[in-house]
Amino acid sequence: MSIASNRAETDARVAAERHGHVLVIRMQRTAKRNAIDAAMTASLDAALNTLDDDPDLWCGVLTGGTDVFSAGTDLAVGAGEPTLRGGPYGVVRRQRTTPLIAAVEGAAFGGGFELVLACDMVVAGRSARFGLPEVSRGVVATCGALFRAWRPLPLPVAKQMLLTGRPLPAVRAHQLGLVNDLVDDGQAEAAAVTLAEQICANSPVSVSATLAAVDQVAGAADDCGWAATQQALDTVLASEDHREGISAFLEKRDPHWHGR
Given the DSSP bridges, would you call strands 181-183 and 121-125 parallel, antiparallel or unpaired? Predict the structure, then answer.
């Protein structure tokens, strides 16, 4: 089905398009690599609220378009306050019973990767990359990666991503099980919609109940994970390294770490 034929709800940051029972949510701040500011957080929250609340929507696809998924938080202005229903970015602490598929092209870095980890399945273009560069900026991953990255990935691989900041190519992510379907570049959104339509061919009541049961078990330790994340964040925010890392990033220079 062509994009043009679908009913769309669009604002400056996010477009939401309906493909039958599927809602495609597209981040469209490409000039900033889909970095998330307060306006995008609000827009993502509104789109996910629609997905959650409309009984005619049975599956969602989250994408950043054909060039980049998301670079995560806009460090220049911040991502805004967590939303009531979705938490950070309006997405990562949301309790959903409607499946959400990430369609990834290009980079999904930092909070962008944490958006991916908040989804239920992942479709990626072959050139896509997933990364957690927070340590290179004197910060820590605060939106779930500290405890979600090693659920789909082997623990040593997740630690390597978290401690080196080096990205994981989509081909390797597919081999390890993070990516469900690996497709040609530019085809991730279409392939994700196809996967969503396969889900929608089933009973929405059964799908919803199944997802809720799986998430109840898989997310049983989330409260502990969020508490550990807050403890790590508190340590970093009190450090000189945090101030140096952010300054170096904004000034486009190498950081000079103090180790304190």
Answer: parallel
Owning domain of residue 169? 3-222
Question: In this predicted model, what pLDDT tens digit does every residue of 210-256 receive, in sequence order?
Answer: 999 999 999 999 999 999 999 999 999 999 998 888 888 888 899 99
Evaluate whether 211 touches 97 at the Cβ level (below 8 Å). yes
Any alpha helices (H) in the chain, and if so which ranges? 38-53, 111-117, 145-148, 155-164, 170-176, 188-200, 204-218, 222-237, 240-250
- pTM for this model (two decimals): 0.93
Per-residue confidence (pLDDT) for residue 217, from 0 to 100: 96
Q: Check 17, 105, 134, 189 and give the catalytic one.
A: 134
Whether 240 is catalytic = no
What's the CATH number where 150 sits?
Answer: 3.90.226.10
Which run of H or E residues covers position 121? strand 121-125
Q: In what order do the strands lie in the sheet with 168-169?
A: 107-109, 129-131, 168-169
Q: Which of 17, 105, 114, 189 is catalytic?
A: 114
Q: Specify whether 134 is catalytic.
A: yes
